[in-house]
DNA sequence: TTGTAGGCGTTATCAG
DNA sequence: CTGATAACGCCTACAA
């Protein structure tokens, strides 16, 4: 980049301020003057120096995405999240920067706040399904634009947008129950994840409400991976009391359960119904296709990002908590008992 | 953020320059002076203003990741890419910014160069498996740090790091051939992807070298999705000339082929061998587990990012093209004919 | 080893 | 509607 605003101002015989106003489309400038400026800028191949602009405006133009890379970043879920963020910002000058909260430099939550204080970012979108809530408590007193996406945060002061996980599981349970299933097993996620806790609670509450007993072996737990689902499926299908339906806390584990059924020659859905949670693209593509709970991840992320955006742009704190609804997608893997 | 370097300088009775040197860990400062500065900074809760620093240094501290979001961003592949990038920069002050080259604002390649000229980024990592090479030709004359990752670029001036796709397919073919297979079908990817072309060529060259005929119906093509693999599998297994082995250009399509086999009651690997490419985590977790070609995506991305980094930091143009080797992982889905 | 001078390119503020 | 002036907070280059 070569020429500066100074040059353009000289070229068209106007002041830098006028040039600035025109190029930024702000303030009152007469059409004729505007024309002159635009032409001069074009003649000189002028391009704005973003660095100088940011400095003068005291902002970075950056929105931080803080997430634990390990485990999250290759997932379909995170992809949808990013897509939602992007959608909320694509008509703006904001850009998205990635931060791995698991990296050594983020040993505590204060580092995140530091990103804002040092003006590395103007706001933060936190995607932290597995993090302890403590991590987020350090933000309670710091007032800067921050929205947590994908997880309900207990801290009353922190904004968040999440899906109604518990209700989703209840929908799936109700579906299986309506099909006549009474022996419904559950493969939960790791309890360190608040989302996993929510889903497990949904299962337990439904069972209690319907007075379905839960033998201890009916409550398996995996780590969200297909392999762990497969192991859980094996345990359930080989157990002395075999369930007629297995509900998994995510699709990957449901896929694992299906694999185990295949391995053991158990036919789905004739002998066993299986349901999941997430509605991955492959859930519809498998044979049999998987009944699952659909969560509108893109929309959720977009809402969160929009929240943050208005917070950053209008300097008013938006409302605190949003829960988006989920829905059940019925497919081939579940059938009447 | 409140206090500035000026304040710290006053507080410890030294010049701003000395403070700057200490805080940045550059230049010669006596231990005693250093101590004074550090203490003063701590007393004043001083934090560097990154915006001012960047402005003065004429750099943004940002590395752009340019990728087509649709289709790529939720994939395991892209996750590994990001992880590799992160690894190359985690001990540095560089941060990663995301740009969607499919967004309306990137209607041509020049916009990417604009990111550099306006100092939005100091360098660019391009992950564009599907983009036409034309897109990249616009960079040929622009000399700024840019590395293409995951794809071989024909343009001689552009740096790139990619895997040896063709050889990977050849490895898989050779494996099947060694097991006695002579009727090997191939499910290729969309030809718009140069990687897909490479893999398909590998199949064709191997077949030619071994004098294996390729009936037209043996060359199927999908869109990298599981569903398209399933459809291809159905076509192949229902065809009049059934292959004894099916090799897919990626794991997802190989999974689809496996689904179709299940649906049609074809046993793997007894009646049909199946192999893929990518080595997704689930390739090992499925039943049967999938023989596939492993590509070291993280390492490839890390190499690309390191290349870019030294280019940005040392201002010397690194060597142009790197091809990393791939390897075959033999699992349950392939067996003797 | 420390300090001085000058500038980086834009925007805010206020006056005309 | 347009312009002059003053920051913005740090770094580079050079001097002492």
Summarize the structure.
Two copies of one chain form a homodimer. Chain A has 337 residues and is α/β, with parallel strands linked by helices.
Structure description:
The structure is a homodimer of 337-residue chains. In chain A, helix 1 crosses helix 2 (16-24) and helix 2 crosses helix 3. Chain A has three domains: 5-48, 434 Repressor (Amino-terminal Domain); 62-164 and 297-326, Response regulator (Rossmann fold, 3-Layer(aba) Sandwich), CATH 3.40.50; 165-295, Rossmann fold (3-Layer(aba) Sandwich), CATH 3.40.50.2300. Chain A is α/β, with parallel strands linked by helices. Chain A starts with a helix and ends in an 8-residue tail after the last strand. Helices cover 44% and strands 16% of the residues of chain A. In chain A, the strands form two sheets. Chain A has a six-stranded parallel β-sheet, sandwiched between helices. Chain A has a six-stranded mixed β-sheet with strand order 7-6-8-9-10-12, sandwiched between helices. Chain A contains 14 helices and twelve strands. Chain A is elongated and about 90 Å long. Chains A and B meet through helix 4, helix 6, strand 2, helix 11 and helix 12 of A and helix 4, helix 6, strand 2, helix 11 and helix 12 of B. Chain A binds a DNA duplex (16 and 16 nucleotides) through residues 4-6, 14-18, 20-21, 24, 27-30, 33, 48-49, 51-58.
């Amino acid at each position: 980049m070569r020429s500066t605003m100074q040059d353009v101002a000289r070229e068209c015989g106007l002041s830098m301020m006028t040039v600035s106003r025109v190029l930024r489309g702000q303030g009152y400038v007469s059409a004729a003057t505007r024309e002159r400026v635009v032409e001069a800028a074009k003649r000189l191949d002028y391009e704005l120096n973003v660095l100088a602009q940011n400095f003068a405006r005291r902002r970075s133009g950056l929105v931080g995405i803080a997430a634990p890379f390990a485990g999250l970043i290759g997932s379909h879920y995170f992809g949808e999240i990013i897509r939602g963020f992007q959608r909320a910002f694509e008509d703006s000058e904001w850009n998205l920067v990635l931060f791995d909260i698991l990296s050594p430099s983020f040993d505590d939550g204060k580092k995140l706040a530091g990103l804002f204080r040092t003006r590395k970012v103007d706001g933060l979108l936190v995607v932290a399904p597995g993090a302890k809530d403590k991590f987020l408590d350090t933000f309670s007193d710091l007032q800067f634009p921050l929205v947590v996406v994908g997880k309900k945060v207990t801290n009353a002061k922190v904004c968040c947008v999440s899906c109604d996980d518990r209700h989703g599981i209840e929908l799936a349970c109700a579906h299986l129950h309506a099909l006549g299933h009474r022996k419904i097993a559950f493969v939960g996620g790791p309890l360190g994840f608040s989302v996993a806790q929510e889903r497990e609670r949904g299962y337990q509450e439904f069972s209690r409400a319907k007075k379905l007993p839960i033998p201890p072996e009916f409550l398996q737990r995996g780590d969200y991976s297909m392999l762990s689902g497969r192991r859980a499926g094996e345990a359930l299908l080989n157990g002395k009391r075999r369930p007629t339906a297995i509900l998994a806390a995510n699709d990957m584990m449901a896929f694992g359960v299906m694999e185990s059924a295949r391995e053991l020659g158990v036919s789905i859905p004739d002998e066993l119904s299986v349901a999941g949670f997430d509605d991955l693209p492959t859930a519809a593509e498998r044979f049999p296709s998987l009944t699952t709970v659909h969560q509108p991840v893109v929309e959720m992320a977009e809402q969160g990002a929009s929240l943050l955006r208005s917070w950053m742009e209008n300097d008013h704190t938006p409302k605190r908590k949003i829960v988006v609804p989920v829905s059940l997608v019925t497919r081939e893997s579940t059938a009447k008992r």
